[in-house]
Amino acid sequence: MLDLGFIRNHPELVKEAVRLKQSDFDVDQFLALDRQVLELQHQVETLRAEQNQISKRIGQAGKDKELRESLIAQGKQLAARLKELEPQLEALTEQRQQLLYLVPQIPDPSAPVGTSEEDNVPVRYWGEKPQFDFPLLDHYTLMQKLDLVDMERAAKIAGSRSYVLKGDAARLEMALLHFALDRIAAKGFTPLIVPAMAREFCFIGNGQFPRGRDQVYALEGEDTFLVGTAEVSITGMFKDEILSYEELPLTFVGFCPCFRKEAGTYGKDTRGVFRVHQFNKVEQYVICEASHEESVRWHEQLIRNAEELVQALEIPYRVVNVCTGDMGDGKVGMYDLECWVPSEGRYRETHSCSYFHDWQARRVNIRYRDRDGKVKFVHTLNNTAIASPRILIPLLENHQQPDGSVRIPEALRPYLGGQEVLQARR
RNA sequence: GGAGGGGUGGCAGAGCGGUCGAAUGCAGCCGUCUUGAAAACGGCCGGGCGAUGAGCCCCGGGGGUUCGAAUCCCCCCCCCUCCGCCA
User: Nearest nt to A224, CA vs C1'?
Assistant: First the structure.
């Protein structure tokens, strides 16, 4: 969400953002509505001022019956008039608010301009792609051979895009999550395990609603929904709070199960566990002071943190600077970390690192008092630490060996009781 | 799920339906005094819209009664205590 005043004063900048983000937001229509609201608001406030005056005088009138009655009569008139106008004002204001939620954030000038992920710009590569002198297997085949997954029975209980992780895969996933949580916590981030179900305001807050509502599972008969990322819950944690600059930055590494409908992806990534309805994720989250430099510093830090994890897992990857058309409404800038998937011969997204300036903070009303005592909206950022089972894909494929086993990277072994390879059970 | 109690400014805690955006205490800020600090004293001290003005709005959220609601009524949410259920 952008500041109303900013939109009024810089409509051209907003229009440019709309174009860059490929949004359909109509700035002129919005401003016209805004003028209507202002006009009506002025009328209503004038009436209320009169009403307040009269009420006050009624209170002061004491035993003067005649005066009282004439004032009460006037008050009644004003009340009647207000009863007409107030609902109108309320409706218009609500309409404006709903539109306000759709205004895109202004992307940073450093973000590549583009319309789809084709236009994302690689900024660096790490690791050497493995050369296989044997027929390489894709992750799903590997998992089947090693008896790590049961898709048929998963479908039986939960339908498509479900999975049962089995045997060493179950242990591996726990190990990965634990590993990621530990490593990021060691950097001073506070570990959190947050609710996977959250109220609507949390989703409005992080920007999931209203636009991505169709991707979210609603719980029947309740005002709660299943989160698609811990980001939603963590954003909601600080709703309506005014923090002190002294407690900033707040850095968290949060875990929770994540749920996504994946509506509109039928037929896409159907093999294996790449795109599933439920997964587990450890997420990095930062709340910092409202400074662009500070945001950018943390953005770089978060992506480096993720890179360290992937490096420790010995998976080749690249980082791409996500283009304006692919980054989503709320973001100022975004990196994706993409891991090398040998069976597909391409890099696939496993991590997503974004900064929002105060776009999210405005939506949930998270503020802080700066050194001068001024109240400002905070800046928020987030990045994946580890999302599983997706990370299993590059992990298993890159480390597969000629005999069909999979080497476990050293960094993970302490979490697996020292185990060095995944092998088919005899 | 059942019974009871409660949600007011950073915290604590008042608040007969009118002069309450709200007493008081603590914390915080500024000043006086002091070599300095503490104490004492004086002042300031919630947030939003708006131009640092006028005015308007906010006492968990939403409705209602009333000329007028923090105060009365209804619904919901959350917290606490007890009971039930339960990993």
Answer: B77
Asked if A20 and A113 count as a contact pair (C-beta separation under 8 A), the reply is: yes
Strands A406-407 and A421-422: antiparallel
Triad A421, A170, A180: Cα angle to 5°: 80
b/e burial code for range A194-203 (CB count within 10 A of at least 16 → b)? bbbbbbbbbb
Cβ of A195 < 7 Å from strand B?
no
Q: Where are the beta strands (DSSP E) in A51-206?
A: 121-126, 190-193, 197-199
Asked if the model's pLDDT at residue A355 lies above 90, the reply is yes
Active-site residue list of A: 260, 275, 349, 352, 390
pLDDT score for A334 = 98
Closest CA to A167 of A149, A189, A142: A149
Average predicted confidence (pLDDT) for chain A: 93
Six-digit token string for A321 = 């600077």
Write out pLDDT tens, residues A116-133.
999 999 999 999 999 999
Interatomic CA–C1' length for residue A132 and nucleotide B61, angstroms: 61
Pairing of strands A250-259, A190-193: parallel
Cis peptide leading into A249, omega within 30 of 0? yes
- Distance CA(A195)–CA(A334), nearest Å, equals 25
Q: Is-contact A151 A277, C-beta < 8 A?
A: no
Strand B contact with A423 (CB < 7 A) = no
The Cα-based distances of A131 to A78, A119, A284, A385, A398 in angstroms read 82, 28, 33, 27, 9
Please say if the pLDDT value at position A169 is more than 90.
yes
Structure tokens at A116: 């789809």
Residue position matching structure tokens 């002071």: A289
Integer CA distances (angstroms), A257 to A113, A192, A399, A419, in order: 33, 12, 26, 26
Give CA A311 to chain center in angstroms.
Answer: 24
pLDDT digits (tens, 9 = 90+) for A248-265: 899 999 999 999 999 888
Strands laid side by side in the A375-377 sheet? A242-244, A367-369, A375-377
User: CB within 8 A of A41, min separation 6: which ones?
Assistant: A89, A93
First-last CA distance in chain A: 57
Q: What is the ipTM of this complex?
A: 0.83
